[in-house]
Amino acid sequence: MTLSLDSSSYLLVLTGAGISAESGVPTFRDANGLWEGHAVEEVASPEGFARDPLTVWRFYAERRASMAGVVPNAGHRALADAEQRISDRFLLVTQNIDGLHAAAGSQRVVELHGNLMRSRCTVCDRPPFEDRTVYRPGVAPMCGRCRAEGRDALLRPDIVWFGELIPRDAMARIAAFVDAAGAQLRFLAVGTSGLVYPAAGLVDVVRARGGRTWLVNAERPANVDSFDEVAIGPAGTVLPALLAG
Ligand code: BV8
User: Fold this and answer.
1) Which of 50, 137, 181, 221 has CB 3.0 to 4.6 Å from 10, enough for a Cys bridge?
2) Which of 19, 27, 49, 230 maximizes ligand 1 atoms within 8 Å of its Cβ, making it the mutation to test the pocket?
3) Do the Cβ atoms of 225 and 217 come closer than 8 Å?
4) Which CATH class is domain 10-25+71-113+165-242?
5) CATH top-level class for 34-66+119-159?
């Protein structure tokens, strides 16, 4: 399977939890979609947060803690190199919240589902801010600006939960890239089970425009038949070879 980065093609890339697996970050499937007996969709949801913010903060505090010492792998680096080579004809959309693409040097990144190391207020319009704090169990952080204005307001992770809309600017950036690419658009999905929308629908957006589609994944995902070319294997090994040309 080859994917040459020629002088005219536009490459839209989608990554999921699988590209970070070789960095030691567990995927959702590894955990069978569960966390301490909770369905991830329950914990990673506004209803779950409203019902039990302490449990949700413990889920994310543990994921923040587990990122200590985690570094990008060869798969992340291969994508950063590809971006260097074709610049504004490259766009990386990630479902991941681990920040490893930026850590590998990728700059043209759309974090579709937010970022684990950012928080935002549930009440005021203070912009989301970097927050690497591993809040202790039983602690749900409160907004300092709201407290100064005399009200109690919970902070939440700046993450898109199930049932929440993807940020408008993220979707607009993807749409603008797809429009600019026209007939030169190609699509590469890496390390995703293709189950979560709207990310899982991107391959169909490209196919509808006649674009060629590639998949690199450890196993055949639900939407494998949507791809013209499929390489089954670890992203850290397959991607550097695939993108070398
Ligand atoms: C929205 C942040 C409008 C949280 C996440 C019914 C049908 C269709 C859609 C829906 C439906 N009901 C509701 C919906 C919409 C819903 C959805 O798609 N649900 C699914 C579960 C059916 N989507 C939403 O709610 C989205 N918003 O649609 O708004 C709307 C609003 C209301 C109602 C309807 C519509 C928002 C979705 C965002 C959710 N937030 N993350 C957090 O991370 O804590 S999604 C979460 O799931 C992560 O982002 C994660 O990335 C993703 C899981 O997917 P993958 O990344 O693919 O990970 P997974 O573990 O599943 O797979 C890993 C793959 O890697 C595997 O295939 C494995 O083989 C492979 N792999 C492993 N190791 C390697 C490897 N590959 C290569 N190399 C390796 N080494």
Assistant:
1) 181
2) 27
3) no
4) alpha beta
5) alpha beta
